[in-house]
Amino acid sequence: MKREQLIDRAIAAGIALLLFGWWEVASRSGWISTLAFPPPSRIIANFGVLWDQGFLQKVGYTLGRFAAGAVIGAVPAILLGLLVGSRVRLNRIIDPFIAAMHPIPKIVLFPLFIVIFGVSDVSKLASIALTVFFPAFINSAAGARSISPLYFEVVRNYGGRRRQAFWYVLLPGSAPMILTGIRIAANVGLLVTIAIEFTMTSNGIGSIIWLAWQTMKTEDLYAGVVTLSVIGVLINSTIRYILRQVMPWQAAG
Amino acid sequence: MTFAVENVTKEYGGGTGQTAALEGVSFAARGTEFISIIGPSGCGKTTLLKIIAGLVAPTSGRVMLNGAAGEGKVRTSLVFQDHGLLPWFDVLKNVALGLKLQGIAWPEARERARHFIAQVGLERFMRHHPHELSIGMRQRVGIARAFVADTQILLLDEPFGSLDAQTKLVLQQELLRIWRQHRKLVVHVTHDIDEAILLSDRILVMSGRPGSILEEIAVPFERPRTLEVLEASVAGQIRRHIWQVLEAEVKKSLWVTT
Question: Which among A192, A67, A74, A65 has a CA at the least distance from the CA of A133?
Fold first, then answer.
């Protein structure tokens, strides 16, 4: 990192420290409500208490639910997106359906899924999967559409078959957009996972947060928020890391 | 090997929007000739190459190889105008592309690709991606890729069209040197008269759209050739002759009436 970047990072860290320092002092001396804003030191200490109550396992429930729903939604979304994006006519036929369904916040269909699948993991996973599906599909299709026909001609000219065009052109050519789609899908998918946990489960981060407000244990609430923030950052930086590693042509341009 | 394009016509679109790109194009070639096709821009030269390569179907007419119909079956290597390197592969993988698509195992494909990358002097850039190379270097990778695939016919679609004049002179010599070592039939499309004279055994002059072949000119110089051939009086005659045929066509395509 360059000197200037280091200084800027240090400034950002300083601002954060000041903010939390002020919060700590303000909360301890009663300038702000301790109930709404417990001192950061107490929030940190509370992690130890939660840990003993099996906090990690609850985080595991959330991540498991999220990951399962995301995979169920994203894998078909990417494959279908590539197919639709690389066929002009198919794209014209499918597009109105996507345009009609995409703007619906998929969480509103959760009650309908409960009617269909009952109060079960199926209805939860279906909601997460459907939420993840659209951004993954739309971006994969856009990625496939953006590939210059020239590259397909190159592969055909050198004796490539349809199946080979998928591995040599369609997939790598769409990969940057696919990853963008996955990043957006992961963020909305996590949101919906938590929203579902607010209402329908007795485990997971969402239920910790929901229970925390009902019992006025604000430290628990903050523990959930901090954990989700860490998970979100990890997901985003992992995807960016993959982008840099496997797609240097993209990272540069 | 004998190769022939027989009465190839190409029309785009249907009904009233129909336009003819090629009109009854015929020519024959044998062995390992170097043929250049020269014509005004938009005359359908690229379409003709794509028809030979089997990437575009002709409206009528045939491409024959050794006396049998071969559109789409003639194995060709096309060097694209805009290099056509796959941006997600490094130089080595791009050059080995034809071999990999033929199902040749990676160790062998890699060795053969390395050989041709060395031929164009880019060993040091084997692991670079196209975006890290200059335009001239990219086109050399494109040429290496075409030679590695080891097809009987090499198609060149204005490979030096987007290069500066000096780079162009160097790459023309490089192409001739590699071609001398790996002889094959070359069909080269260009709009540069001197380039056609320098490289070719025969020059086919095409009309403006719809493209048809107006004239065929033999270039008598011995090989290997250097830039000096362009100073010979025969070269001057050929140059003048080509321009006499082309000038009217170019003006027509530009709607110049005087």
Answer: A74
Residue A38, CA distances (Å) to A24, A227, B113 in order: 8, 17, 66
How many CA atoms within 13 Å lie on the side-chain side of B151?
A: 25
Token output for B37: 């096709």
Closest CA to B238 of B209, B208, B200: B200
Q: Does A187 touch chain B (CB under 8 A)?
A: no
Work out the minimum CA distance from A158 to partner chain B, whole angstroms: 5
What pLDDT digit, counting tens, does each position of A68-86 carry? 999 999 999 999 999 999 9
**pLDDT higher than 90, residue B219:** yes
- Signed CA dihedral, B64, B67, B73, B75: sign only: negative
Is there a contact between B212 and B61 (Cβ–Cβ < 8 Å)? no
What are A88-114's pLDDT values in tens digits?
A: 999 999 999 999 998 898 888 899 999
Residue with tokens 């002889």: B183
CB count, 10 Å around CB of A221?
A: 20
Supply the pTM of this predicted model.
Answer: 0.85
| Complete DSSP assignment for B161-173 | TTS-HHHHHHHHH
Strand B68-69 and strand B76-79: the pairing is unpaired
Give ipTM to 2 decimals.
Answer: 0.90
Handedness of CA B34, B35, B40, B45 (dihedral sign): negative
Contact A172 B77 (CB under 8 A): no
Q: Which residues of B touch A247 (CB under 8 A)?
A: 88
For B215-231, b/e burial (b = at least 16 CB within 10 A) is: eebebebeeebeeebbe
